[in-house]
Amino acid sequence: MALETAVHKNDKRYLDENVAMNPTKSADLFTKPSWCLELRKYSDDVLESLYRVTHIDDDLVFPEFVITTDKSKETNGSRF
What we know:
The protein is of the alpha+beta class. The protein has helices at about 1-10, 10-15, 25-30, and strands at about 35-40, 45-55, 65-70, 75-80. It has a two-stranded antiparallel ribbon. A two-stranded parallel sheet has the order 3-4.
């Protein structure tokens, strides 16, 4: 829905450098620093974490968690 609205409004914040809008750019975009927003829902709570990564592997697999209640999945983020 956000991307549909962005297309309609020609909102460059969502359209420029967005892999969802242009998958052919993924190899280049994933090598650059990027902001990540992670949302998790636990019971009635929604937890949010905004962080910056130096690169993301271009394999369409995003296995790391920053927010987790499972200590075995904890990486370099916080456990709640």
